[in-house]
Please model this.
Amino acid sequence: MRFFGEPIEFEKQAGIGSPVWRGRADGGEALQSFAVAVHRADGRLAALWGGDERLRSGGFRLHCVFGVDAGHAWVSLDLPAENPVYPDLAGIFSAANRMQRATRDLVGIATDSGDQRPWLRHGAWPADWHPLRHDAGEGGNFPNAPSDYAFVQVGGEGAHEIPVGPIHAGIIEPGHFRFSVIGERLLRLEQRLGYQHKGVERLFIGKNIAEGARLAGRVSGDSTCAYAWAYAAAVESACGVSPPPRALLLRALMLERERVANHLGDLGALGNDAALAFGFSQFMRLKEDWLRLNGALFGHRFMMDRIVPGGTALDLEAPALSAIVEQCDIVGREVKQLKKIYDEHAGLQDRFLTTGAIDADLARELSLTGVAARATGMILDARAHRQGYTPPPPWAMLGVRPATDERGDVAARAAVRFAEIFESLRLLREIAVGLPDSAVCIEVPPLPGGCGLGVIEGWRGEVLAGVALDGEGRLARVHPHDPSWQAWPALEHAVMRDIVPDFPLINKSFNLSYSGADL
Amino acid sequence: MSFSGLLWQLFAIVLALALAPLLTGWVNQCRAWMQNRSAPPLLQPYYMLHKLFLKDVVLAHGASHLFRFAPFVVFGCMVLACAIIPTLSTDLPLAPAADTIALVGVFGLARIFISLAAMDIGTSFGSLGGRREMLVGFLAEPALLMVIFTTAMISQSTSVATIVETLAHRDFIIYPSMAFAGIAFTFVSFAENARVPVDNPATHLELTMIHEAMILEYSGRHLALIEWAAGLKLYAYSCLGLALFFPWGIAEGDSMFGLLLAIPVLVAKLAIGGALLAGIESVNAKVRIFRAPEFLGTAFLFAVLGLLVRLLLETRV
Model:
């Protein structure tokens, strides 16, 4: 099959996961022209990564995943071992910029033009050493050689810079924000991330499937279920197995519980950042109760390692399911009350409304997914039906209604979170009463040379995992992709019409992952 | 000036030094309860001061003498303010030392020093905080002066002691002008003491801070003095508010009984005031920084209304 009349031939990925088509570009031009076609059709760049295939095919390989109407188009491009360069895609999809730079830092395949600044490499290793190459060796002790990073300078009368981070006044993840301001007015924000880089992708190499699942669940702790499922879906597709229906519904149950927990926390934190500490303590209380039930039913407050390739690591009995339903009722009632308080609090709404706004055109241009995209009115949810897209099981039968809002500001992102909590509670009830009887886990025999892509709508947005197995059935390359890659640049745009003291609130309304994007 | 008067003056200052952290602790406790949290101990601010005084001072590179002196100046200003304001009695030796306009000047002096110190070290947060503090200050001061003029017109004097005496010991008359002035004074107190809705004393978000941004680089005894001074400022403002609007219970002269009675009355009034402060803080969100001028503009408006009401309606022909 072909997309948009482009010459790349695609084949649908096996399995029951999200619809993914795989294709191979003959050269850089073919990839570039496909990207242009996707962009023209209002598609998006979902992920971009590279791999060292010199032992298997004699060169490097670039992987680009594009989001199209029907699902995802995964295009691979083979690059020569000597001088592996490919055409710059950042001019078509600006989201490509950071992914391309990270790929160059890690694998050593670069774009032929455009931004050549390092992204993940902060001077902890030399520029000619690439940790994901098979001949990189142990690496070991490189002298730390931090170099100056060329931030874009803003000139003019009264313009100055405020550097913030990577160490902040609160206990949060590290990231550097360079604000160019006049007085309180923000002229420009440039982020520098990568302080959380811990070599996750290199750790995957050579692990077996089960070890990989544990690692995938730890890429970004608040999205452990989404990552574990995306990884599991990719592995299942690569090995040609399908998990049993009960396992799929249990996974959905865990994913929705993760979504509710995080949305509760975010809504509380949004109140707190506007100094309404009442909202913070109320939502935190609800979140704590929620996590405690997780701990009691799943043996882990964040449900880490409960989703495994082949199914789930545990089954829920009837009493556990009724406890879940009961909690849904209580939380639903309380959140309804709190929503009323938030909606009617003039001071809070004054902070929320029009703050940090982005519109749907910009969201599309930046390949944005998840809560932030839906808050601009885009109907983009991997769980929900939309024009030309049918969600995979178990979502198809649950009939997920995507929550959207047209405004694109902090208020809209808060409103989408509220709506998603109510929708998730409905889904949880529906799953809990309608669980079919079946096994919850099947064997996944590794298929040497197999590869697959998993796509899961995490609470933040679209989480992807690309998996490739080597000749012995071990992991040759795994790329976990966080929606924050696309959303961080959106934050840079969202603050443009606002003032410095509103940044924390806008930042919290996105609540992006540092760890997931720093890998 | 009698010897016992001097003793009582000294006692009033010591009482201010001792009660100020307690008031802060009480407000924090009330706020925690109102937000369904378990509260820190009442004495927490004292533990904090104790800890900070024991710690070494870490000075920023390039900090000038100004940076090191500023905490002492600010602390001194606040102690002086607490001495001028009649907390226990209107007849203490220092009360006539400065009138209300000078009192506003003392607060202004402290503000200038802490803002300069914040800018002195050259961090972006320091200048950010200093800039915002001046924005709040230059809008709050006129409103405060207007409030004071209203009370001064009633008592025909700008001396705090005289104002309090007049207001407390005339026949009981409800002045509508004082109601307007009271609202304005409350607004100004919130802004001046870095409370919600203008500032948030509990925040860790460095980009939104006003007062906290200025003192980010302070440590050890310097920080202790500044924290203590912040407590004293809240105490001073509370006492000023109580003296102007609820003056009953403040002793006149230095009779032993009157002064002894004044202490529990003051503590009770502060406790109620602190609880009210916590309540207002709990139900409000912080305003956008550019709404702070609106907030203080409203305060100024109320203060002017109070003055007009006094001039047009309350003066006898």
User: Anything to note?
Assistant: Chain B is about 70% helix and 0% strand. Residues 3-314 of chain B form one domain.
